[in-house]
Amino acid sequence: MDQAVWTEDGTRLWAVREGDGEPVVFCHGGPGLWDMMADVAAALSAAATVCRWDQRGCGRSQRQGPYSVDRTVADLDAVRAQFGWDRVALLGHSWGAQLALRYTLAHPERVSKLVYVSGTGIDDDATWHVDYQRNLRAALDGRLARWESLRTRERTAAEDREYCVLQWSADFADRERALEHAETMADPWFGVNFECNTTLNSEPAPDLRGQCETLQVPTLIVDGTADIRPRWAVDSLERALPVVSRVQLPAGHLPWVEDPAGFHSAVTRFLSRP
Predict the structure, then answer these.
(1) How far apart are alpha carbons 242 and 231 in whole angstroms?
(2) Can you give the residue ranges of the AB hydrolase-1 domain (predicted)?
(3) In principle, which of 14, 17, 37, 45 could form an S-S bond with 60, CB 3.0–4.6 Å?
(4) In this structure, are strands 111-117 and 88-93 parallel, antiparallel, or unpaired?
(5) Is the CB of residue 261 less than 8 Å from the CB of residue 244?
(6) Structure confidence at residue 274 (pLDDT)
(7) Tens digits of residue pLDDT in 210-228
(8) Cα–Cα dist 125/98, whole Å
(9) Positions of the chain with pLDDT under 70
(10) In the chain, what are the helix, strand and coil shares in percent, each to the nearest 5?
(11) Strand pairing category for 88-93 and 219-224
(12) CA distance 36 to 186
């Protein structure tokens, strides 16, 4: 059932919960996108209570700032408190993996386990972003010219959707089904909050290494081996965390889409550990 979560500054967030068992709160990618993990939630709901939510200004939540990482961490805590959970497991994807990590570092006593999916580690983005841009353009292949045309001009709402679908198509290892998968991501379409995206992406990232080295929350890192974001970018996080395991799946940036069985097995096995 959909539920409104009200933050301390009066912003309404969309959330939904399903299933039975220990609580797991999802953190979607972006920033500026919305939750696209209903399939993952359905698969896990037999063993856990899964909560999905749209971040501030995104998707079904109120389109209202201000936007900052600290503000989004506080919003995530409002979601946890709304449902009356003292401790939760977190599953974050992409930017949401970074958000889940930041929340865990800020509130380790409130997190039982962390699932870090397709994140980009704790080194400066400059260490991997050039490789990502090269891989993105290579994966777009015949769609590159159209993507470049849309990227460099003011777009209509319909063109925003086309631009995103083209870019998201690069995130799948199966090139024959890539556009199909990207279209599924855009249905339903809520419109990207580009202001939120730009603001959060431009926020300087703190050095998290020291905090990570003392974090005792069990963490599972899940990668798709064909992710266009170089997977070695996550090595720094894996080295820093003292209680960590890592699973690499034959998939792109959304491993639950291209290897659902492998993803479900890895996540449920980790979450079921005492």
Answers:
(1) 19
(2) 23-149
(3) 14
(4) parallel
(5) no
(6) 84
(7) 999 999 999 999 999 999 9
(8) 12
(9) none
(10) 45, 20, 35
(11) unpaired
(12) 9
